[in-house]
Design goal:
homodimer; mainly alpha; Arc Repressor Mutant, subunit A; Tetracycline Repressor, domain 2; 2 domains; 11 helices; DNA-binding
DNA sequence: GTCTATATGCAGATAGAC
DNA sequence: GTCTATCTGCATATAGAC
């Protein structure tokens, strides 16, 4: 039916605009234009900008989280799991290059909501933390606490995306093709880097 | 004279507000309140919000860059230099915890201006790049290209700051004291992590 | 230099016809 | 469900008195 189609068009348009400009930078007018409708109709389907934003934001996140949980609850050694997480994360980022910045903005705008959402989705860091600690005790990996490993891992994955406009200019003569090549190398480089750092 | 004092007060207030809320989120009214004056006077000293923002932003960056250049142009082995850069960067971040997010926002808002500013200040990555490549050829460090090493390094340093609202909740039961302890450990953990990963 | 008052413009949201 | 027209509020910026 046509009502569903319009709603879908709005969600799609909101996705594009929000992800590029963030909640503050996005304009309802632009979303309406992108969807080929007018502002009034936006508010007919979504009472407020805030509501539309949350729908979009948590819609995207919902696609990322299950994959991560699957990896951690599955079988395999810790290094293998780390490798799988890097691969999963990184390929998701490559397909959604503006996601990291998007998430970071929301982390600082409404952390409680985001934190609650992750819990609701069953993303449980304590489980991973125990896994790390056990591996350290067993001597499989070098001494490190989970928060440090987590910060290192996420930082390395995410940095090339949030820094892209500057990095591409400064390190790749502003050549987007070269930068995409660089991004594609990240998965291998990061897993190798981490393994060298962690495995005794 | 009193005009200088007022201008200084404005700059100080703008520092505080911009760094917390970014260019988009900051309000001229709030800056005026913080400085103990009114909006009209803001515009007397700074023609526009944009102008005031740039003054603040590049004022802060100007304090960080010289230290980095000094390290790279100085004597010492590559690992020592990396260790020094991590220390310099990290202590700067600890004193300016909202700087990373601030910079990231600007990277995406006006990358050309930022890129040009860094060049003007003499921050030259080609020099560092050659240093890395030489060390790789000599076999002092493992095979890695400069952009990858750079992304890894900056990512690890910066992540705990831009992710703090979420990380603190999820990994430290929202205890700010524990999180500050964690931040203080970063310098040592990162340099150790990098050395293990890079040195053969 | 500093203020009060006001202009200007824009963005989110609503009213109401069709 | 979809539109045009409009309201409301807020933020930047300016005018003009002191």
């Amino acid at each position: 039916m046509s009502s569903d189609t319009t709603k879908e068009k709005i969600i799609q348009a909101a996705n594009d605009v929000f992800i590029l400009k963030g909640m503050d930078g996005a304009r309802m007018q632009e979303i309406a234009d992108e969807a080929g409708i007018n502002k009034a109709l936006l508010h007919y389907y979504f009472h407020s900008k805030e509501q539309l934003f949350k729908e979009v934001f948590y819609g995207i996140l919902s696609k990322l989280i299950p994959g991560l949980i699957l990896i951690f609850k599955g079988e395999g050694s810790l290094p293998d799991k780390i490798e799988a997480v890097v691969a999963e994360y990184d390929s998701f980022m490559f397909r959604n290059p503006f996601l990291p910045q998007f998430v970071i903005r929301e982390i600082n705008r409404d952390p409680d909501q985001l934190s609650g959402f992750m819990s609701d989705k069953g993303l449980d860091f304590e489980l991973v933390e125990k896994m790390i600690n056990k591996a350290v005790e067993a001597g499989t990996i070098r001494q490190i606490t989970f928060p440090h490993l987590f910060a290192n891992l996420i930082g390395m994955i995410v940095m090339p995306y949030i820094g892209r406009p500057l990095f591409q200019r400064k390190l790749f003569k502003n050549d987007p093709v070269k930068y995409d090549e660089f991004l594609r190398e990240r998965r291998v480089v990061i897993t190798y880097f981490i393994k060298q750092a962690m495995i005794c």
